[in-house]
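User: Glyoxylase-like metal-dependent hydrolase (Beta-lactamase superfamily II). Structure?
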Amino acid sequence: MKWSRLPLGPIQTNCYILADDDKKCLIFDPGDEGEVLISWLRKRGLEPEAILLTHAHFDHIGAVDVIREHYKIPVYVHEKEAKWLMDPALNGSQFFNLIDPVRVKPADQFIAKEGELSIGKFSLEVLETPGHSPGSVSYYLREDGIIFSGDVLFQQSIGRTDLPGGDQKILLKTIHDKLLVLPENTLVLSGHGPETLIEDEMDSNPFLNGF
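Assistant: Predicted structure:
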């Protein structure tokens, strides 16, 4: 599997593309600039099979409808945030003046619990990782040693908890119980900023010291 990162939109949210050798791919968190993403995919001859959302904050969902309608593919989100796609008060877009309120059509598939998720030839482990938002999930590829963590854990930082449904205590417990138990060489692909390693965050993330 090969992954690529495209920072999109005014907050430069990381959209990730995971591709196999057959040019099939999954799209994680298409936050904005749908036409830019379509052009990027077209130039590389990639064929998307699904959109996977780590959570439903506005900066992770802004291009969902453009991509879904262009490729006729399903959108996955945790059932706890099913209503967030359509509601600017829940997805947070009404609190930021730099963008218009974001409203996205309902998802096609809902994640209800942790476990295996198979889409075409792709197989991922879904981990429920709340705290940044109630329905945050991370997508783990055990064999490849990578996890798409959304806004749970960043390089030398953690996700904010001041938007609807955020809870710092839950977030810290999530990071400790779900992420820091992964192999130390696991590559964390975060919703913002560069990738990092579980080992590095265990050793030097200032928000995790003493937890």
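Residues 2-204 form a domain with the Metallo-beta-lactamase; Chain A fold (CATH 3.60.15.10). DSSP finds six helices and 14 strands in the chain.
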